[in-house]
Design the sequence.
């Protein structure tokens, strides 16, 4: 795995670069972190580097981790990587199949 010092760019004014732990976190590694989205209450994977074009390897890694977290904590998902509110930092939501917001999940107990 690549050292973060080799490829990570951070922008001090970017909320996703700051990675404040304001909602539950489910995963973090050198490539990404996954937390519950503050707005839609779905799992959200965030690339550690500021930008919108992760490598194919990083993209596959992030989507796989997002599916793992969803399978454990939320339920079946589809990956939605349309970056509505923060369009300049790659992130993707794990949306519930047949829904959009976290309330649409049939939560695991």
Sequence:
């Amino acid at each position: 795995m690549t050292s973060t010092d080799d490829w990570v760019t951070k922008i001090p004014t970017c909320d996703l670069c700051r990675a404040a732990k304001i909602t539950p976190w489910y995963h973090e590694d050198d490539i990404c972190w996954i937390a519950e989205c503050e707005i839609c209450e779905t799992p959200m994977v965030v690339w550690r580097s500021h930008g919108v074009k992760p490598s194919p390897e990083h993209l596959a890694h992030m989507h796989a981790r997002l599916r793992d977290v969803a399978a454990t904590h939320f339920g079946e998902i589809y990956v939605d990587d349309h970056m509505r509110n923060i369009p300049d930092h790659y992130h993707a939501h794990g949306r519930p199949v047949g829904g959009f917001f976290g309330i649409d999940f049939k939560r695991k107990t």
Q: What stands out?
A: Residues 25-47+57-97 form one domain.
